[in-house]
Write a structure and sequence with these properties.
NAD(P)H-dep_FMN_reductase; FMN reductase; alpha/beta; Rossmann fold; globular; flavoprotein; single chain; 8 helices; oxidoreductase
Length: about 200
């Protein structure tokens, strides 16, 4: 499982949220007898590589390794800070350089952080449509953490959402092992239309 976080601070609330979501998913899978390793990719460390790939048209070795990790993972947690009512440019740019089929069928949990709960709509108006376009398999519960959610008054509700979303991701990973890999193999087995027609004609 891979967690992608686009927070800029060190540590960032996006990274903290990603870690807690990963722990919840891992606990759910552990309860089902599955041990899962979690790799966290902090896009802050790849910012120059991502910009270079956008300009040059191909990723360098460091970014290629990160992209391969996402494409090969059995599940994805994607967390972005919300700026001006949408995901960050760094977050979007990373998924822009990912292969267009890289997330097909992949169990995915989306989450975001922001200064106010008013930004929570960005999950359904920005992140969910983007990952739907990439044909990811998005779990029903998305998690938004505003500044007040980290205080004692809001932490109980945040913990509940984290546990629910993590459990949904864990269940989906358990139900669809290596889904993305299987789907790519299926595409490789597809015979082009022209080739099938030629085979039919030759048999007449």
């Amino acid at each position: 499982m891979v967690a992608v976080t686009a927070g800029l601070g060190q540590p960032s609330t996006a990274r903290i949220l990603a870690d807690r979501l990963a722990d919840a998913a891992r606990a759910r899978l552990g309860a089902q007898g599955r041990q899962v390793l979690v790799e966290v990719l902090e896009l802050r460390d790849l910012a120059l590589d991502i910009a270079g790939a956008m300009v040059a048209g191909f990723p360098g070795a460091k970014l290629r390794a990160a992209l391969d990790a996402v494409e090969g993972a059995d599940g994805l947690i994607a967390v972005s800070p919300i700026y001006t009512a949408s995901y960050s440019g760094l977050f979007k740019s990373f998924f822009d350089v990912l292969d267009k089929d890289g997330l097909t069928g992949k169990p995915t949990l989306i989450a975001a952080t922001g200064g106010t709960a008013r930004h929570s709509l960005a999950l359904d108006h920005a992140l969910r449509p983007m990952f739907a376009y990439l044909r990811a398999f998005i779990v029903p519960t998305a998690v938004f953490a505003a500044s007040e959610d980290w205080a004692s008054a809001g932490e109980s509700s945040l913990n509940e959402r984290i546990e629910r979303a993590g459990s949904e991701l864990g269940d989906l990973i358990a139900a669809t092992p290596a889904a993305a890999g299987r789907r790519r193999e299926e595409f490789e087995d597809v015979v082009p239309f022209e080739q099938r027609m030629a085979a039919l004609r030759s048999g007449i």
